[in-house]
Amino acid sequence: MEQSAQIPLLQIDGLSKRFPGAIALADVSLSIHAGQVHGLVGENGAGKSTLMKVLAGIERGDSGRVVLSGKPVAFENPADAQASGIAMIHQETNLVDDLTVAENIFLGREPTRWGFVNRRRLHEAARGLLKQVDAGFGPAVKVRTLSIAERQLVEIAKAISFDARLLIMDEPTAVLTSHETQALFELIGRLKDRGVTIIYISHLLPEVLRLCDKIIVMRDGRVTTTLDEKQVPATTEQELAGLMVGRPLADHFPTRSAAGQGHALEVRDLSVAGCVYNVSFVVRRGEIIGFAGLIGAGRTEMAEAIMGLRQRSSGVVMVDGKGVDIRSARDAVRAGIGYLSEDRKGTGLHLAMSVAANVTMLSLARYCRPLIHQADEDNATRGYIDRLRIRASGPRRAVGTLSGGNQQKVLLAKWLEMNPKILIVDEPTRGVDIGAKEEIYALLRRLVDEGMACMLISSELNEVLGLSHRVAVMRQGRLEIILNAADATEQKVMHYAAGVAVA
Amino acid sequence: MNVPIENSRRWDWPAVVERLGPMLALIVLVAVTAVLERLLKHESHFLKAENIFNILRQYSFVGIVAVGMTFVIISGGIDLSVGSLLACAGGIGIWMMNTAILATKLINDNALARKEYAENVAAGLNLPLELPWSAFRESLAHWSITLHLGTSEPAGVVLAVLAALVVATFAGWLNGLLITRGRVAPFIVTLGGLAAFRSIAMAIADGGEFRSASHDLFGSFGAGGISIPGQYVAEGVPLQFPNPTIVFLVIALAAAVLLRSTRYGRYVCAIGSNERAAVYSAINVNRIKSLTYTLMGFLAGIAGIMVASRTTAVTSSATGNLYELDAIAAVVIGGTRMQGGSGGIAGTVIGVLILGVIGSMLNFLDVSTYLQGLVKGVIIVVAVLLQRLGQKR
Q1: Is the preceding omega at residue A370 within 30 degrees of 0, hence cis?
Q2: What is the DSSP letter of B341?
Q3: Exposure on the CB side of residue B27, measured as CA atoms within 13 A
Q4: What are the φ/ψ torsions at residue B307 (nearest 5 degrees)?
């Protein structure tokens, strides 16, 4: 394998990009070699997304050169990049829900005959592409009916149809189940064998180490380290995380202290028609109870029912031993329950509004006397910016301009602002890098040590196991078992979550 | 509010354009008009205080409506019913006032008609009973006498104002109820209102006018103003800063504080920028939206009674026509996002002034006033284009 001796497929020299108030890329240089999988890792805001947007023609660099197969290129728009063989698979796919798979793949370049779409040829061509990505669905189904994993396959098929030489994947597995992830990795392997080059962005370091030939580490808008084919197999997850953060990392999870006494939250016989059945449990003060389960196990629906965001068909919720009648999020917040939702863009944040406005959204009354005192608001927000190490130039900055991980921290700050007695966190570290994860873990730990009760819903099993005093496992809307931390092993949890013995 | 300008050395140009664009456009429009008038006609009447005050008076009514519309649009909605509602509220205000002031005459007229009818019946003639005033209005007249509402002209005027405000506020609340509880799109609900409120006004006035029975007192506010000492329009006619403009500016100022510095205002922005997140953030979305349409109705009522006062009459078929579109145009020109989420009252005020200047400039330049629509249209589209550019980069 002497590919590094050849001309690289893609060469970037001294690429810089500034945004108002921030430097996104500072003199980035790197080369990408054909037929390899390149991992791109870095903390939130390290510049990964900006770099990829420049490659995909979505953003333009301020200075520097991009050379593709020996020719300098400057993409004006995504179509330019596509024509040059660069395709990007976004985490949120860009497909038209109401068109069929085939129509989506060939959108804007449908095979025609006498000016009409030639449906037969359209479907034939699409079927061929779908076969290449091993899709289990046909070209005539509407995209609306597909799962996220299936939509990704459509995007990949589309990229293949463009004869893409370079495929950029931005956290493709963040929304996939482990089975789907496995299938995706196999597909990536096949694409690689066909000579397609892949840039793979992910926060999940084990899969990056497993999948990638080379790993590029970015920090503060610069490429700080590049690990080659020989170095990658010798690198541990811990070391890679250290490279990203710029300092060696200690143990992921802070030590547990004993849970307190007294029931902060008691849920009895909670049901939601069609997704949650007769769930009962207790959360003690100072305790983190983790909820494990596969996607669709009903954990989010349960949380939303507790919060009054979803109609309950039965069930009683008691806070501090007293029954509370929760019919809306307002009632829940009044009772002291906070819910950090899993979908930060859809239900969590107001992206167009300032960091301060988002942080004080629940506690605004505290800043009114009787008019909103903006200086106080800003000060309180600055406190969170420092404490949670949010990378924002100031409290008045629009949240939408921050990177994903920093947005997640703003969301967390918003719920901490309400001083919850019980905090339900749903995928609290989704899209968040290692450094920020550590901070969030330590923060949750500190809060429960101060007497808060916490329900942790997460698809990352090590997170659930590492933080929780007890682990509740849900399957198909039912609470299967509650395990003590000491008994909860990955295997045991998976056994209950899947409902079968795991070999 | 609009995107804040950070205290950094680098200017965030899109944000600057977005914030100051409307102001610049206004200055350019005024300057161009003044210069062209000077060059083409060798006159300079456009910049005279008298003309400026005239523009202000004329557009204060749309201005008040536009202030309410700013909240509605920021919340992610739209209100098409305001022009009709304005006419309906103003008309009902005059109608109630007239009923009170003319109560005795009303009752006597009807009594006379009944007497004639009785005589006809006695004479064996089978003529139908034709009351000059409806039985409903007659009973209102009786009520107003019992409550001493029409005993003085001032009492009648107060009744007019109250009636207009109550009618309009209720109508706004009803819009809000249908939008929140009924879950009907704001566009549809208020499109219905656009037709319905106009129709109510026309039905009551039988397609004609509501003409005020109190001429001097009722008309004195809308047509009057605060005299500027030492300045005269003509012999013995003092130059006056128009009352409606004072009301408009006071309302705009209060609204700016409401939008920027109260929980209500913050929640309006939150709902417009992401309604689901607002629900998850424990905001009472239905109540905030209802309040917004109710406020809109209330302001349409104020505008309605002032229009009525200015002309001492409301033409049921024409008054307030297309005000909703002018108000929406002013809001959009002022930089408020049509999709909701962000915007500001200051921008809307400037948007109103821009509309006023456009209306007047063509007059002054001897260009056909029929071209007003074209100029307005171009400016609206350009305003939105600039917003787009601001968001893109």
Answers
A1: yes
A2: S
A3: 5
A4: -60, -45
Kindly state the average pLDDT of the residues A212-221.
89
What is the distance between the alpha carbons of residues A245 and A43, in angstroms, rounded to a whole number? Answer: 7
The label of the residue with tokens 């064998």 reads A193
- Name chain A contacts of B18, Cβ cutoff 8 Å: none
B37: pLDDT strictly greater than 90: no
Contact B3 A333 (CB under 8 A): no
Q: What's the token pair of residue A489?
A: 């092993």
Q: Up-side HSE of residue A381: CA atoms within 13 Å toward CB?
A: 28
State how far the Cα of A348 lies from the Cα of A340, in Å rounded to an integer.
7
Q: Above pLDDT 70, what percent of chain A? A: 94
Considering only CA atoms, which of A37, A138, A157, A21 is closest in space to residue A87? A157
Could you report the per-residue pLDDT of A109-146, keeping only the tens digit for each?
787 777 777 888 888 889 988 888 888 888 888 888 88
Phi, psi of B364 (to 5 degrees): -70, -30
Extract the tokens encoding A296.
């669709």
> How many helices (H) and strands (E) are present in chain A, helices listed first?
16, 22
Instruction: Return d(Cα A169, Cα A87) in angstroms, integer.
Output: 9
Facing residue for A393 by CB, picked from B6, B260, B277 = B6
Q: What gap in Å lies between CA B243 and CA A356, rounded to an integer?
A: 39
Q: What single-letter amino acid sits at A207? A: E
Compute the residue count for chain B: 393
Average pLDDT, chain B: 88
Residue B5 φ/ψ region, left for φ over 0, alpha for ψ in the -120 to 50 degree band, beta for the rest = beta
Q: Which of B8, B266, B277 sits opposite A372 (nearest CB)?
A: B266
**Binary contact (A349, B257; C-beta < 8 A):** no
Task: Find residues 392-411 of chain A whose CB sits inside 8 Å of chain B.
Answer: 393-394, 396-398
For the entire predicted model, the pTM comes to 0.78
Q: Cβ separation of B262 and A394 shorter than 8 Å?
A: no
**Closest alpha carbon within chain B to A345:** B277
Q: Taking CA atoms, what residue in A is nearest to B274? A: A350
Residue A424 CA to residue A420 CA, distance in Å, equals 9
Q: Is A310 strand, coil or helix?
A: coil
DSSP sequence for A27-80: EEEEEE-TT-EEEEEE-TTSSHHHHHHHHTTSS--SEEEEEETTEEE--SSHHH
**Rounded Cα–Cα distance for residues B208 and B203 (Å):** 9
The structure tokens 């046909």 sit at A138
The residues facing B131 across adjacent strands are none
Determine contact, residues B72/B293, Cβ cutoff 8 Å: yes
Instruction: Answer yes or no: do B342 and A393 touch at CB < 8 A.
Output: no
Report the candidate in A352, A346, A37, A12 with the shortest Cα–Cα distance to residue A167: A37
Report helix, strand or coil for A306: helix
Read off φ and ψ for residue B41, nearest 5 degrees: -115, 0
Question: Which residues lie closer than 8 Å to A96 by C-beta, 6 or more apart?
Answer: A103, A104, A107, A143
Cα B199 from Cα B203, distance rounded (Å)? 6
Which positions 426-455 of A are in contact with B (Cβ < 8 Å)? none
The letter for the amino acid at A193 is D
Task: Please list every residue in chain A whose beta carbon sits closer than 8 Å to the beta carbon of residue B257.
Answer: 371
